[in-house]
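Project channel, design review

CF: Before we commit to the Kribbella yunnanensis constructs, I'd like one complete example in the thread so the newer folks can see what an input/output pair looks like. Taking Alpha-N-acetylglucosaminidase.
RD: sounds good, go ahead.
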Amino acid sequence: MIENQHAVSSAGAAEAAIRRLSELPTEAVRVNLAADLEDGFRVSSVGGHLTVVASGAGAAVAGYAAYARRTGVAHVSRIGTRPVDRALPDVADVSADATIGHRVAYNLTVGGYTTPYWNWAQWEHEIDLLAASGVTAAHLTLGQELVYLKTFLRCGYNEQELLRWLGPPSHQPWLWLNNIQNHGRGTSMTLVEDRADLARRVIERMRDLGIVAILPGFSGTVPPNFSAHWADAHTVPQGRWFKGMAGPLRPDWLDSTTGPYAAVAELFYAEQRVAFGLTGMWAVDLMHEGGNTGGADLGEAARGIQRAMTAADPDSTWVMQAWAKNPSRELLEAVDSDRVVIVDITGEDHREDGFGGPEWMLGILPNYGGKTVLYGDLEDVASLPSRWCGDDRPPGLAGITDMAEGVENNPVLWDLFHDLSWANRPLDLDKWLPEWTAARYGGADPKADEAWQILLRTAYGPWRHGAQDGLPAETMQALAGLPVDAAAVEGAPEVAAMIELLGSAMAEGPLPYASTDSVIAAVPSLDANQASLNGPRAAAYPDGALIPALQALLDAADRLDTPGLSYDLVDLARQVADDVARTALRKIAVAGRARDLEAYDSAVQRFLELIDVQDAVLRTNEHFLLGKWLADAQAWGRAAGEGDYLVEEAKRILTSWGYEDSIVLAEYANHSWAGLVVDYYRSRWALWLDEVRATLVGGTTKAVDWYLHADRWIRADTTYADRPTGNARSAAAAVLKLAIHIVES
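CF: and here is what came back for Alpha-N-acetylglucosaminidase:
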């Protein structure tokens, strides 16, 4: 009887999600859960009524998404979902069965780069999307500050010092990862409670749709001076974030081989049970991106963590990330591998024997910092089912995971990757991509197909390419925290040496693949090649290679009009501007080094105009608005001045990332968003290019402190539009016209 009630409840949850995505009336959607289906769906429609038979609620929603795509009546996507806008056809069957069991969503950093200020409406749509994507589990950091607060209040800390320690929502994921502490002015009790209330709703809805929330477990992270609150505690200072070489100071680690750790862990999991319940999956990364055990045996430290976890939640699974030489074989050999699952973040850290025992998930890491850049090896992703459907399936491979650090980007990659859940052979992109675009754009169009064939060969080509470039001297100085004078750029060799050492310390083999990013967002330099440290600092294709794709998609936009097409058009125009900015900057450099003032001024004018037209096209779409990001942050503030503080931290993570101790992370999370582009990035370039001009005419220059420049912008109370304005097609056409002029002149 209870099982039947649960089935009815799950079917109802699935029907509600399908109605939200499809906008079909209640009577048009029927979901039946079938015990004889292990993990899959069967979908049909007759007489305008949709029937979904599935193994569970999540599979039912995924079935609707597959049906929508296959028939073209609608589209469900990371960005660009289109409800049913035409009659349902009489379709006998759209069906699939999962070929890989675990499908996990989210890097833990998504809670900082994408979702820190989301409300329930945004989360509700996101959970529907997770179900439609076949996701079975998702990392969730939302609301965890309540657990840490309650735990350490019981250890003798006062509320205010803990609120300060926890940091603001935008930066809390890195406390759960043991990387930072005491960021900014912290948080407030009201904010903690409000976010915990939202987290309960999120976890409940995930559970309704068959998605397990993976919550942070207790790794041993403790507030400062823990030994003063727990007399016999053995805590170990962890140094600076990145292997002790750079970044903020990490929290101390409570030795997990000791009794005090076991006692605090018991408190921690008890507070988890009270706040959110026990979900059965706990994320803990011991010594993530650095740190040390202070002489404690690593294997015994891992056993201590697992003992505490299973004591609190007997059937639980420890979720670890394979990243930066973790987890070591020493650690894995010390624990019960049947209770461990490993997320191979890049898909490149496993060996021939997998991880020597535990189950693991094959991942991709297509994005750092939530950056807005077209990137992702679609051919490689489409080929992945051969890894688990053939005879040479690696030992322990049990799932897949998209570990992008931010998820509001590259919808084609998200959709393709999650279609792998149901694939029993490599996907044929020659068939998959036209079907995807036809559903996304509301109809097939040869010009849309032409645009995507170009993108497939260029922006969505191989994860790695041969081109590579170095750090400009101006960037090195900025990363060292030194002011930069256009008349005397000296560089900072010690920064370059540190970065090289850091890269080798964090990677056993080649550095993880990464995209290049925007020179518009870069620290200004005539040699600027990308904004953040991650990536090859060189483009994978010629600067003007996407111009024909933009021409073709603009042509298609004359006939088609959907949310997905509008987004893709803006995103492509944004990328064209980013790419052509490289050409424009080279023209400035050539003129400047030739001391040709007329050519220099003309090239500068075109470069700044390109930034302006990029901002103009970004203003036309809600997904590219700085003002929307900031309005979401402001809305969480309830105490006097709290909203303004949250806005500052929301701006900070996109620019300087943190304070002076985080300067190595500057521009790590750069975004091409309207407002950010024209007000922040453009102001830096205008200032610097004026300084360079002064060197050409023998004028006086003034050293620029880029951290202080960012800090002033962060603290300014400028208001940015949080609703789109303008026409996407005409704005994209303006980008196209100027890009052609720059490339051809």
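RD: helpful, thanks. The chain has a mean pLDDT of 95.
CF: The CA atoms of residues 674 and 744 lie 27 Å apart.
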